[in-house]
Amino acid sequence: MLKTKIAVFVSGGGTNLQALIDARKNGVISSGKITLVISNNPDAYALKRAEKAGIKTMVISKKDCGTQKIFEDNLLMALKNNGIEMIILAGFMCILSENFTSQYPERIINVHPSLIPSFCGKGFYGIKVHEAALAKGVKVTGATVHFVNDIPDGGRIIKQKAVYVEEGDTPEILQKRVMEQAEWQILPEAAEEVAKKIMEGKEI
Ligand code: GAR
């Protein structure tokens, strides 16, 4: 069976991309192959991780594109040109509109660093999510992997994992614990689940 061709969208450090690359190597992901990494940020360290793993990279900057429509059309063209069947948003800090998401229904997944529906939606990304969780005083937080539709963080939930907040946590400490105990585990697992379904659907 042909493996599902995956593109990973990134913006920053790329530790979730690294978890996906490692999961390919250790067999957690066996139904998909990461064939393209796209960053909206030319300085993203995630690009270096992809290069090191021998994965094709592209930079498509929203700023250079000028409008959301041109940005998304360029992304779509790159995906079509590379035969991509599934997209993973791994720390991708741009919101995608229906113009984009409607082209890949239940084929785009995202990792979010909280237990949705807490601390999610517009304005909640990266460290801001953990700042908000600590400001609220929650005792349990975590991560969610969900399908992406036109509502920010609003698509169907695939996996969640809870993580305890500890006395003395700073946003940075909490972010690291949520990544280590939840994101790096559930993102590869969810990616395999979705890639497997796509692969089985196209059996020849
Ligand atoms: C991760 O914590 C990810 O869940 C979050 O940004 C971080 C990226 O880290 N994503 C969002 O907040 C999206 N709404 P990484 O670049 O090291 O994977």
Overview features:
alpha/beta, 7 strands, 22% strand, Rossmann fold, binds glycinamide ribonucleotide, seven-stranded mixed β-sheet
User: What's the arrangement of strands in the largest beta sheet?
Assistant: 3-2-1-4-5-6-7
List ligands, each type once: glycinamide ribonucleotide
In what range is the share of β-strand residues? 15-25%
In CATH, what is the class? Answer: Alpha Beta
The level of helicity is 40-55%
Structural class comes to alpha/beta
Query: How many domains is the backbone divided into?
Result: 1
User: Which overall shape is indicated by the principal axes computed on the Cα atoms?
Assistant: globular
What is the tally of helical segments? 7
Radius of gyration: 16 Å
CATH third-level topology: Rossmann fold
- Give the helices and strands as they follow along the chain: EHEHEHHEHEHEEH
Number of strands: 7
